[in-house]
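Feature request, filed as a ticket because there's no other form

It would be nice if the structure record came with a short human-readable summary line next to the tokens. Right now we just get the raw output. Example of a typical job, pasted below so the devs can see what we mean:
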Amino acid sequence: MKPEPHTHTNTDNPYHLTYKQLNWVSAYLQPGGPHNATQAAREAGYKGGPNSLARRGFENLHNSKVQQELARRTALAREETKDRRERRLRDLDAIIDDPDTLPRDRIAAMQLQGKMLGWLSETRVLETPDRARALGEAERRVAERAALLLHDTRLLPDGTYAPDPPESARGSSGPPPGPAESASGTAG
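Raw output as currently delivered:
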């Protein structure tokens, strides 16, 4: 004679599912899990071949009490996720509003908060041949400008320019003549 399945009557099992049905629901809903009825049946402890496990998974998936338990646990998980999100947003608010927080940390908290609220998003630019050519040209111009700046003796390490020396201090070692000066020998 087959023993009666053990049912839980506590608040964790309001639909009086069997132990294996409860295990099946847990396996079916496990985070990152397969959400596959047959695999959940195997993990819940049901025995048999692939067809038998598939049948058990199908039966559980279409059982009204199991469906109610799936809906209950899904709602609980959704509520926990919502609560956790709200706590994180409050924590980020505290970081942003704290005057003792470093500016870079406040900015990072604002960015995270913006992403969580959907105010900011990661964007990807579709590369096309024309865009690649334009970017290549822009990069070339930036590289040329950087090379000029590196060779400019007036550029100081802090990125500012030294003032031009007075005309008397330049003497004969002034700047080389420009193209108009070299052609005629005199300026303008």
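Something like this underneath would help us a lot:
The chain has eight helices and no strands.
The CA atoms of residues 104 and 110 lie 10 Å apart.
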